[in-house]
Design brief:
mainly alpha; two-stranded antiparallel sheet; 66% helix; globular
Length: 145
């Protein structure tokens, strides 16, 4: 029995990945030159800006990125003094990561740029379409857990 041809352009995971990459690259253009921050580094800063005190493993889980990529980004951000690494009180083997004062300042400058880009991207959608998009994304994410 012959199978239907694989239409990559209609394949949802591919479409979402390409869209996500294009959005990330658009936002990255706003901050890469001014702050010398890569997409991966921004994701790390953004997550730690929201969830301070994570371990490297927890950070990798929250970003859904490869642990090696997260580790490299962390090393660069720690070296630049944007992230502080301390030891967990109860488990001395576990590192606790948080934004340094410099990291908080950069986060506070980039976050509005990212939100502005999001508003621009969503401007073409009605309020109902935005709510539907949120609901559909939540529904798809729930199928993966």
């Amino acid at each position: 029995m012959p199978s239907a041809p694989f239409d990559l352009d209609a394949f949802l995971p591919y479409r979402l990945s390409v869209l996500s990459n294009r959005i990330s690259q658009s936002i990255a253009q706003l901050y890469a030159e001014q702050f010398q921050i890569s997409i991966t580094e921004w994701r790390v800063l953004a997550v730690l800006g929201r969830y301070s005190g994570l371990s490297a493993n927890e950070l990798a889980e929250r970003t859904a990125m490869d642990k090696v990529a997260v580790s490299r980004a962390l090393a660069r951000l720690v070296e630049r003094g944007l992230i502080s690494r301390s030891t967990h009180d109860d488990d001395r083997r576990r590192s606790v990561l948080s934004l340094s004062a410099s990291g908080k300042r950069i986060h506070a400058q980039i976050a509005p740029l990212a939100l502005q880009m999001e508003r621009k991207l969503l401007a073409g959608l009605s309020r109902d379409e935005k709510q539907m998009l949120d609901a559909l994304l939540d529904k798809l994410a729930a199928r993966l857990t």
